[in-house]
Design a protein that fits this description.
The structure is a homodimer. Chain A has a 4-stranded antiparallel β-sheet with strand order 1-2-4-3, sandwiched between helices. By secondary structure, chain A is α+β, with helices and mostly antiparallel strands. Chain A is globular, with a radius of gyration of 20 Å.
Chain lengths: 246, 246
């Protein structure tokens, strides 16, 4: 529990490589995580090669983490391996649909997070790249992902070369609902978000971005509606292309 | 790493309750997990009340796990709290779309799995109920989930009252791809799935279901195409109803 309690996302890594046996041991252990009907609907693409990192990097807007990490892992929803097995065994797979994509997405994320927890327990640092679903077609091309395989998230991993402050979290009573969902009043929002808004690093963030409130930094700059809509449309397009919306 | 290595899904629980301080401590620690832009796009609904469990149970086909677990947790994708904050802060939220649903889904699953890892480390047993996305509208009604909140997965948790064998996993070389996706040949499928097919418990499964192959148990009985298609259509309907496909 301690390593999770003290964790922080790491975006700068030492030059040291991750020993192959350690990487494989962590991956193997993470595959013990729960999976839908024990189907293991995921694949992990391991990127170590410099040229391959250069190919992947633009899909992630050349973030620091992908530039300096010794290892980049792309966790994919994968119904292909399972479907191929069915075809080899006189069974007709029926997984070219959204529900199957959701099952495989869950499997991929459960394994990804299990990997992260064990990696951190072993002194490694990780960073999730949310950009994977922004530019899935670029990731698909770089990693040669065939139909019924979809990149869900990317994790950079290596030995930490920074020790950033832990970032804030909302009070737990704002996240946990007893028995039924308790909707948020204006007073609740005030109570739950005031600490976050009071932090010097967040106030600096507002000033740097020339905004009036911290929320505006999110809605106007970091996650604006227009971008979300373009990405959403593209996601459906690529889901169809990869065979999950037949 | 040891508790993950030795884990098994637990579906039968002792009558002992989980002390509230322990449950809250585990949840609080799990909220340290990575989250998209530190937005924490999730809510956790805690079900302890017997009547509430009875209400939830049919959505999960009255599985043993939900009948005997002292605590049931429904992890939801939640863009509502964040959007309400935006509205209170002169910011216009733009999160009624599929990309935002995917971000919140990832956040919910990353936290759910972190919870499971810590719970198991503390001697508790867990079971994921994949049925949450089968009958989302029943879960939404029981837990009174408003728009921009969507139930992603349900975890039952309690002290184990069984010690099942660990289930098999595919060889790691069938999951890991070096640099690019290596597609599966017939020979690969043979190599990777033969161990699973040789296990007495899986052979028994084939006979009990009067099938010719193990794969047919999945395609014809457990996860048939027809069901997947009905569930997919319903998922889009409920996603729209909850405001994520505006």
């Amino acid at each position: 529990m301690e390593s999770i309690k003290n964790r922080r996302t790491i975006r700068r890594y030492k030059l040291d490589e991750i020993p192959n046996y350690l990487l494989k041991k962590i991956l193997k252990t993470s595959f013990k995580a729960s999976t839908t009907g024990n189907m293991q609907l995921y694949s992990v693409i391991v990127t170590v090669d410099k040229d391959m990192k250069s190919k992947l990097s633009p899909a992630h807007y050349n973030q620091t983490a992908i530039q300096t990490a010794p290892v980049v892992l792309t966790f994919c929803a994968d119904f292909r391996r399972f479907s191929k097995w069915c075809e080899e065994r006189k069974a007709v797979p029926g997984y070219k649909n959204f529900q199957s994509f959701m099952n495989a997405t869950m499997d991929a994320l459960i394994v990804a997070q299990t990997f992260c927890t064990i990696a951190e327990e072993n002194g490694l640092g990780i960073c999730y790249l949310g950009t994977t679903t922004y530019n899935p077609q670029m990731v698909i091309e770089a990693l040669k992902l065939p139909s019924l395989v979809f990149p869900i998230t990317t994790i950079t991993v290596g030995y930490p070369n920074e020790h950033p402050n832990q970032v804030d979290r909302l009070p737990i009573e704002s996240i946990i609902h007893e028995e039924t969902y308790k909707d948020y009043t204006s007073a609740d929002i005030e109570k739950y978000f005031s600490y976050k808004e009071s932090l010097p690093e967040n106030q600096k963030f507002v000033i740097e971005n020339k905004k009036e409130t911290l929320a505006q930094v999110f809605t106007d700059i970091r996650y604006p509606q227009k971008d979300n809509e373009v990405i959403s449309e593209n996601l459906f397009k690529v889901l169809r292309q990869q065979g999950f919306l037949d």
